[in-house]
């Protein structure tokens, strides 16, 4: 009687390990580095959009993916830590902030499973309109995370969610 459950568990474990190995194998065939650009038109002035992009401390109040933000300075570099409802946190450093048109941030933790830089450009597209362009340059060393990011999450999904959160917040006013 005990043999059947053990055989079933062995088969299920083998299937699970095969799937995990397959994902990792496919992940190794994907490039470690990626570059993704998202560009959208917002029906709001560049100054309003700039306020949302550059005020990183306030992002937890309008971006549903962020639980809290802590702004701090370390060795003369402006940094901020985004905490998420999952309990995870990522520290970024602000590389460039040129009001009201360019904001660049990058993951500050060299031990993180991924390294990502976002270059955010805001261009006036009329008196009350802005074109926002986010270019992500990233490196994902872990082939499993690379596979998930490429096939399930999509590199541009975070950019689109960020822009949608800005649009939703500015539409409230």
From TrEMBL:
Top-rank taxon: Bacteria
Assigned keywords, A-Z: Membrane, Transmembrane, Transmembrane helix
Gene3D superfamilies associated with the record: 3.30.530.20
Pfam families in alphabetical order: Polyketide_cyc2
Entry keyword Lipoprotein: no
TM regions (residue ranges): 6-26
Record keyword Cytoplasm present: no
Protein name: Polyketide cyclase / dehydrase and lipid transport
Taxonomic source organism: Pseudobacteriovorax antillogorgiicola
């Amino acid at each position: 009687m005990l043999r059947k459950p053990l055989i079933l568990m062995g088969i299920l474990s083998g299937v699970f390990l095969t799937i995990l190995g397959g994902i990792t194998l496919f992940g190794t065939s994907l490039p470690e580095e990626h570059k993704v650009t998202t560009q959208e038109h917002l029906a709001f002035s560049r100054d309003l959009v700039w306020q949302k992009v550059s005020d990183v401390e306030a992002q937890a109040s309008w971006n549903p993916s962020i639980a809290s933000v802590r702004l701090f300075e370390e060795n003369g570099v402006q940094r901020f830590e985004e905490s998420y409802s999952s309990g995870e946190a990522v520290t970024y450093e602000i590389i460039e902030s040129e009001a009201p048109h360019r904001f660049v941030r990058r993951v500050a933790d060299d031990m993180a499973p991924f390294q990502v830089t976002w270059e955010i450009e805001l261009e006036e597209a009329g008196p009350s309109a802005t074109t926002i362009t986010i270019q992500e340059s990233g490196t994902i060393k872990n082939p499993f995370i690379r596979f998930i990011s490429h096939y399930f999450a999509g590199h541009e999904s975070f950019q689109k969610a960020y822009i949608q959160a800005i649009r939703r917040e500015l539409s409230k006013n």
